[in-house]
Please model this.
Amino acid sequence: MNYIEKRKTLVKSLIERNILTNKNVIRAMLKVPREDFLSEDAQSSAYIDSPISIGSDQTISAPHMNAMMCEILNIEKDDKILEIGTGSGYHAALCAELISIENKESKGHVYTIERHKELAKKAKENLKKTGYENRVTVIIGDGTLGYPEKAPYDKILVTAASPEKIPTPLKTQLQMGGILCIPAGTKNYIQKLYKIQKLECEFRVKAITSVRFVPLIGKYGFSNDDE
Ligand code: SAH
Model:
């Protein structure tokens, strides 16, 4: 089976499992070539629904997690998006696809922050190779501080697990009415995925499901005591 066929089969199974329901997310998952964000030896596993190592002790999330986070965020065509944890760049590419579906003139943009220089460099190459470099800006730094230069954001997604206390800068940099999707809990993988919506007088918090992410390391994250 070639990659396009494998991609279709994976998307079909995510639809059958009720993980994928939004037609734009389905289209984006069918379009972005996940294999191009993996090292050569990992490419044959691109369409298995599991996390894969991307070097620097980090992993690209399982496709069902990418799908779930995109659905939670309800990404719309002109959204300005901030992602914390670029990793391979795959999820940033999905977001870039979603802000420009049927809209080549989209005003939307994806800012994505990665703390590992090597991963950021590779992600930039992957985004260039797949044609998303104009819609995605990769920044090297501590994403727990957000990226105030371009705030506020319509949507923020964090693809590493935060401590239970959500980094304040991310809440501050969220647009009124905006959505933050973030896993939070303990560093050793007991975490929940949250949908946090910023309203006039409160943050509306909804726990979606139990998850396992690598830790968010930084000023408002976990300390890097094992590095
Ligand atoms: N979204 C990625 C997968 C991310 S894995 C993809 O599609 O491939 C989580 C990433 O978060 C790792 O690359 C890790 O280095 C990064 N990370 C952890 N803490 C961070 C922080 N404070 N700022 C930026 N990146 C961070």
The longest helix spans residues 3-16.
